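Anyone up for a design puzzle?
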């Protein structure tokens, strides 16, 4: 179904994934939008570690809900706790 990660050094284990999900509250939810265009939005979430579920904050109707009804294929990216050092480079770091 999914391609394996190409650079194994970039792979993180399950414990690190859960720690990332628990320590943050914002992410980007990307879906298939209207007419085949991608639709991505910043979103608040809560991770329930006991149930291993991510709950998204949002309305019960709208573009996001319509997109999810059309296709359940999504991508969710969590923001880390990074900051930008203006004197170094544009890349964020932890």
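Challenge accepted. My sequence:
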């Amino acid at each position: 179904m999914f391609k394996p990660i190409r650079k194994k050094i970039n792979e993180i284990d399950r414990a690190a994934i859960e720690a990332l999900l628990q320590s943050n509250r914002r992410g980007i939810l990307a879906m298939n939008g209207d007419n085949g265009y991608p639709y991505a939005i910043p979103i608040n979430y809560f991770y329930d570690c006991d149930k291993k579920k991510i709950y998204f904050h949002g309305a019960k109707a709208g573009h996001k809900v319509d997109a999810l009804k059309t296709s359940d294929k999504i991508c969710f990216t969590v923001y880390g706790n990074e900051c930008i050092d203006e004197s170094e480079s544009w890349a964020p770091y932890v």
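A detail worth pointing out: Residues 1 and 73 are 12 Å apart (CA to CA).
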